[in-house]
Amino acid sequence: MVSYDDNNIFAKILRGDIPNDTVFEDDHVLAFRDISAQAPVHILVIPKGKYVSVSDFGAAAGAEEVTAFWRAVSNIAEDQGLSEGGFRIIANSGLNSGQEVPHFHVHILGGRALGPMLRSSEAA
Ligand code: 5GP
Fold this sequence. Notes:
By secondary structure, the protein is α+β, with helices and mostly antiparallel strands.
C-alpha cells in the first residue's frame, strides 16, 4: 500500500491552505466542486481521514467514517437535484485508473446525460 502524502492537494484543501467551493462538510467528510468540471454538476467527496485510495478507506476506516462518507454522497446527490435524473459516481484508484490525487475521493457527476461509462480505443 502506498503511504499517505501529507502534501497532496486534497490534504492542503483540508488544512485550508488552498481554497475550495464547499458544498457539504461535517466531522468526517468534505465535499467541494471539482476545479475542472466534466459535467454541470461535478463534486468531489473526500473523507477527512488520511486514506490514499478506496482500498485503503475500505480496509482501514472506522464504521462511523464509512457511514458518514456514503451517507454524504447520497445526501449530496439528493440536495443537488440529481437523484431523479440520475448521476454517476467514479472512484479512481491507483495507476491504471489514472488517479491524480492520492487522497481517497469519489466524483459525483450529473446534470446531463453522461454517455457511455468508458471511451477507450483499447478493447476489453
Ligand atoms: P482523480 O483523477 O484523482 O480521480 O481526480 C482528481 C480531481 O481533482 C480532478 O478531477 C481534478 O480536476 C481535481 N482537482 C485537482 N486539483 C484541484 C484543486 O486544487 N481544487 C479542486 N476543487 N479540484 C482539484
